[in-house]
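WARN retry 2 of 3 for item q-0093 after timeout on previous attempt; input resubmitted unchanged.
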Amino acid sequence: MSARAWTVRSLVKCGSMKRWLKPFVPVRLRRWFRGIFPHQIVVTDEKYGCRMLSARSIESESEKGTIIEEIRSLGPWFHNFEIASDIWTNSSGRLPGIGYPMERWRLIEALLPDVRGKSCLDVGCSSGFFSLKLKELGAAYVLGVDFEQQPQAIEQAKFAARTLGLDVDFRTMSVYDLGTVNRRFDIILFMGVFYHLRHPLLALETVRALCAETMILQTITSKHEKQFVELDRAIISDVDLRSPIMTDHRFPAIRFVEGTLNGDATCWFVPNLQAVTAMLRSAHFRPSEVTFTNEQDIIIRCTPIDSPR
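OK item q-0093 returned
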């Protein structure tokens, strides 16, 4: 395969060819590429999820059937991705949907520093998609951990890693036990976990002790307008209990969920935007970049600091 063909093939691997790329790829080259790699191009509609660069072609119908059966037996899968050429982990579209986590990955990838040669930790890795992507991007070591919420998640992730031929360390482990790992990580992903925690500050402090360079946190929030406005920290550094500041919508606040949230009994609280950043600072993280994914969700890139002030 020529270097030019490999470049184009790599760029279209994650869903459909990105809109910004199409004007720079001549029509003749796209047609030629479709002729050389038809099976890579047939499934390019974004509804199919995220392709993996490591996904290999399976010539044997017997092996293909074995992989499909293993996917079925390990299901349901939270992540839909290409585990082998044109074989997907959640092709049925079960919640959270056939397009997840492709759109989430595009947002996360834009926030990532260069991961080549780095050590990475994926907290709440589920079936392993983000961990596997980090390894594909050149990370030296990737550890993915998950615990309780998705009983078969780690087995799914291990199977995916074997099938894709990627060396990723997957373990069943609580975030509260991460201190036993006895190492630090350059990059930490902490996504879809925060609001499931009974002890969120303890978890953040545990993760902070392991973070050497960058953490990317994603969480649901109370409804916002995709803009972030905080009160002057001098005003809220010493608050009177009777002060009207306490009921200001910009004051850090958390809504506790005693029962279920949309039928999910593992969600314990819903923070507002200001509470998320305040809690990060209290755990010695400095929020540096914010992405609003929708009006009740946020992704924050942050760095560790010695002091929250």
